[in-house]
């Protein structure tokens, strides 16, 4: 089978490698560098900056660990940028080598989908045609501009510019308290910026899957870092002049229960404004309408549960599907594998019920499955168990105390429904919970699993034991209620 893949990000290159390994002839079309947003303008650059911020914050605490001689640690932004590029180039080189190893045909240029069997590629050296039996669209997304906050790449920035700043702004105003906004707030606060986050909804990380207690913990820790948070607010009257930005914070239409202070307008001033609100599909030039490929009202491509578009033989994966399909790099990769399986004889739908997410703030956050509020809306009886990170011996030894582990379970079956953790290495630890949910494990299964000591992963074990006790108490309570009901019925 011949497959043409448009887009060389995590979804596109994962699909390309998997298809080639299954004997398919693959043509991969990309108009920029391999790796997509994740490698070049997203996941990897931000985590490289995060690593530098973590190192700086640790250097400032070295005396706590009995290490002396480090006087006034500071950040060298140019050295940080060089390291970021070195990491990116190393990983990019690995992708290039993999393409060569798997004998994947590479075409550089902008793709136009003609039909399921033909893609026209407009390159610098002219037009090329890629023919095959199927097309996979994996062109991703790009930052969304807001009215009154048009990117000028100097004072009003997208997340792309925030990853390659030539100077650290003394005052940074971040519009959007979602994942990207919170991650970059932590980084630039560590680098020395005064940071203010303006978020239209009533909490940071206002995503249904993010547990409310996680948002509350992050808000508290950010206050300790002196990161200002203005929730339930939006900006108006943005003006640029004399080398800085002036704006007014006003009540957001998304604020549900605003405080008296939130209702008042407040003037703000900053050296730069970073806009991290929303994404839009990167589908310019693809010719979706002409090819008959269906999209929703916002332009995101629509697909069935096997990721096939309205045109048989044309599939779409990754960010181009929009937020309804979870816009994460590892989801795009999983979708790529799903499509390749469907094209090569192993038909299966894409599953979204067990997708872990990681937020690289300070502290880190890891989540998978249902938040408590989601679980209570879907199940009649739910119990939760929470264990504080500071109670772990490993956390005390590391000097990393903020955080907690929280499990959400179905009280009737004991099955694990969700897991949420915040603290050191939470992004790594959440993988255990993801496997447990994938295997439909019960809280008893987790509590019966011996965890190495001393480790941070023991937090899940301890949270499971607490949840198990809550399940027992719930069962006893339900039994007492049932017995009372029977006695009442007998009396009548």
From TrEMBL:
Record domain Pyridine nucleotide-disulphide oxidoreductase dimerisation: where: 355-463
Annotated EC: 1.8.1.4
Keywords assigned: Disulfide bond, FAD, Flavoprotein, NAD, Nucleotide-binding, Oxidoreductase, Redox-active center
Binding site for NAD(+): 176-183, 199, 278
PROSITE patterns: PYRIDINE_REDOX_1
Catalysis performed (reactions): N(6)-[(R)-dihydrolipoyl]-L-lysyl-[protein] + NAD(+) = N(6)-[(R)-lipoyl]-L-lysyl-[protein] + NADH + H(+)
A Gene Ontology molecular function term of the record: flavin adenine dinucleotide binding
Gene3D superfamilies xref list: 3.30.390.30, FAD/NAD(P)-binding domain
Active site positions, chain numbering: 453
Chain positions recorded as FAD binding sites: 47, 139-141, 319, 327-330
UniProt record, GO biological process: 2-oxoglutarate metabolic process
Keyword Protein biosynthesis: no
Bound cofactor: record note: Binds 1 FAD per subunit.
Signal sequence, start to end: none
Residue runs in coiled coils: none
Cofactor requirement: FAD
FAD/NAD(P)-binding domain span: 2-336
Enzyme class per UniProt: oxidoreductase
Disulphide connectivity of cysteines: 38-43
Family: Belongs to the class-I pyridine nucleotide-disulfide oxidoreductase family.
Note, other: The active site is a redox-active disulfide bond.
This protein's name: Dihydrolipoyl dehydrogenase
């Amino acid at each position: 089978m011949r497959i043409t893949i448009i887009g060389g990000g995590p979804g596109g290159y994962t699909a390309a490698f998997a298809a080639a390994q299954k004997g398919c002839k693959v043509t991969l079309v990309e108009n920029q560098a391999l790796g997509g947003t994740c490698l070049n303008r997203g996941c990897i650059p931000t985590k490289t900056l995060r690593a530098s911020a973590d190192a700086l914050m640790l250097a400032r605490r070295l005396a706590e660990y009995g290490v002396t001689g480090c006087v006034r640690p500071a950040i060298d932004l140019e050295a940080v940028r060089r390291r970021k590029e070195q990491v990116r180039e190393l990983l990019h080189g690995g992708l290039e080598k993999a393409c060569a190893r798997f004998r994947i045909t590479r075409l550089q240029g902008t793709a136009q989908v003609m039909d399921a069997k033909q893609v026209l590629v407009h390159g610098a050296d002219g037009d090329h045609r890629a023919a095959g039996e199927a097309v996979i669209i994996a062109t991703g997304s790009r930052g969304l501009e807001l009215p009154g906050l048009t990117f000028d790449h100097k004072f009003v920035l997208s997340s792309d510019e925030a990853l390659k700043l030539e100077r650290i702004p003394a005052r940074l105003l971040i519009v959007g308290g979602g994942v990207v906004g919170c991650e970059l707030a932590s980084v630039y606060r560590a680098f020395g910026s005064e940071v203010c986050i303006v978020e239209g909804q009533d909490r940071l990380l206002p995503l249904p899957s993010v547990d409310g207690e996680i948002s509350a913990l992050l808000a508290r820790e950010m206050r300790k870092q002196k990161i200002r948070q203005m929730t339930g607010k939006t900006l108006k009257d943005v003006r640029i002049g004399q080398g800085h930005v002036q704006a007014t914070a006003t009540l957001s239409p998304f604020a549900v229960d605003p405080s008296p202070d939130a209702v008042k307008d407040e003037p703000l001033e900053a050296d730069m404004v970073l806009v991290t609100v929303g994404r839009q599909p990167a589908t310019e030039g693809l010719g979706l309408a002409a090819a008959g490929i269906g999209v929703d009202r916002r332009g995101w491509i629509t697909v069935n549960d096997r990721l096939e578009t309205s045109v048989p033989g044309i599939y779409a994966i990754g960010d181009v599907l929009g937020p309804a399909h979870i816009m994460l790099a590892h989801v795009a990769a999983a979708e790529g594998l799903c499509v390749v399986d469907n094209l090569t004889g192993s038909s299966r739908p894409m599953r979204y019920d067990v997708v872990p997410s990681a937020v690289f703030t300070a502290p880190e956050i890891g989540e998978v499955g249902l938040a408590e509020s989601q679980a209570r809306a879907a199940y009649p009886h739910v119990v939760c168990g929470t264990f504080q990170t500071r109670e772990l011996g490993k956390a005390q030894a590391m000097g990393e105390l903020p955080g907690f582990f929280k499990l959400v379970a179905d009280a009737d079956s004991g099955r694990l429904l969700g897991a949420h953790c915040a603290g050191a290495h939470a992004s790594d630890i959440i993988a255990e919970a993801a496997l447990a949910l994938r295997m439909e494990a019960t809280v008893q299964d987790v509590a019966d699993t011996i965890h190495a000591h001393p480790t941070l992963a023991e937090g899940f074990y301890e949270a499971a034991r607490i949840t198990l006790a809550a399940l027992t108490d719930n069962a006893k309570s339900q039994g007492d209620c049932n017995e009372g009901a029977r006695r009442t019925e007998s009396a009548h």
